[in-house]
Write a structure and sequence with these properties.
This protein is α/β, with parallel strands linked by helices. It contains 13 helices and eleven strands. It folds into two domains: 180 residues, Aldehyde Dehydrogenase, Chain A, domain 1 (3-Layer(aba) Sandwich); 129 residues, Aldehyde Dehydrogenase, Chain A, domain 2, CATH 3.40.309. The strands form two sheets. The chain has a six-stranded mixed beta sheet, with helices on both faces. It has a five-stranded parallel beta sheet with strand order 3-2-1-4-5, with helices on both faces. α9 links the parallel β6 and β7. α1 runs antiparallel to α3, α1 crosses α7 and α2 packs antiparallel against α7.
Amino acid sequence: MELADRIKSFEFLGDRLRLYHESSTDPELRPLVDAADSAFAENPWFTPKHIRLALNSLGKTLDHDHLTNWLACYRDRLLQPVPQRRVGVVMAGNIPAVGFHDFLCVLISGHKFIGRLSSSDARLIPAMASVLIEDCHAWQHDITFTTGRLEGFDTVIATGSDNTSRYFEFYFGKYPNIIRKNRNSVAILDGSEDPGTLERVADDIMCYFGLGCRSVSKVFVPAGYDFSPLIKALGKYQEFTNHNKYCNNYDYSKSVFLVNQVPFTDAGCLLFREDPALASRIAVLHYEYYQSPGEVQTFVETNRDLIQCVVSNAPFPFVSVLPGDAQKPGLSDYADGVDTLNFLLA
């Protein structure tokens, strides 16, 4: 397929995803509707609301302007004939359709996609692939999915935990590869945030139950910070305590803190704990006080390889996103800061 045809086909998929967000009754959307229903039935963390949110976020990026602007700096290489590679992609399953960007990068660069699906998310991306194939049957020769052993590949992109990354390094080390590990995100507050900003920070913390690598697991606050406004902003997520799996985690952590006499603040749907660690458990938010912005800057720069995203209204020398944008990555926001498309075009 020519580059223009590949772009046009993903625009078609974008149209379908945006339409799904607006109304799921259109018969042409049946593959997406069925996949969403099955995904929720198989994985209760994937609520219908979160699935719709994830697919709509993807749909917004898959239009002509976003796609062509993203590809502009790669265009000369994309137009050059290159040997088609078979790219094996080990996909994560922590939030709905989290592996889509790798799927997009492999196909838009003209390679064959061999995806090993996560058992936690085995429905959504195959459904999107079926929409692409509906638009252009040529895709069926370039897209393969498996839930078993990944085989027949030339190049590998694998996303997992720090533990699985060691296995990936051993098994895939002899191939050209991108291997991703655990990452977390942080927010930097200064106490001047208005209620609307704090509601957006709450979204960055709680969206997808805090399971994403772009979910804020820790906040930095100035000494003497009053958490009351942030706790109030989190009120709209009180419904999470009705979610069985989330509530189990919330109750478990609360019990552990109480038994071990660990100081914490109960926000009703989230437990605040002062802790220097970057990663936090489900339903727990770590916080740390700072005396000067320079302290936070040092932390971020020292832990750059562990941080996916920094949320802040204040200017810092490192890249950050505005409150509310943590879960709205653009096409150029590559996981772990590694340019996937550049890797595939090398």
